[in-house]
Amino acid sequence: MDWLSQYKIINQNQSAP
């Protein structure tokens, strides 16, 4: 349960411009 972990995943998901 890491908020940072979710943040990284969200960043990868929003890799598209």
Give an account of the 3D structure.
By secondary structure, the protein is mainly α. The protein is built from one helix and no strands. It starts with a helix and ends with a helix. The mean pLDDT is 87.
Percentage of β-strand residues: under 5%
The helix-and-strand class reads mainly alpha
- Overall mean pLDDT score? 87
Q: Could you tell me how far the N terminus lies from the C terminus, measured between alpha carbons in angstroms?
A: 28 Å
Q: Sheet bearing the most strands, described?
A: none
- Helix percentage: 55-70%
> Secondary-structure element sequence?
H
Q: Which stretches of 5+ consecutive residues score pLDDT under 50?
A: none
Shape: rod-shaped
Q: How many E strands?
A: 0
Topology:
Blueprint: H1 3-13
Task: Kindly summarize this structure in a few lines.
The chain is mostly helical. The chain is built from one helix and no strands.
Question: What structural keywords apply?
Answer:
17 residues, mainly alpha, 0% strand
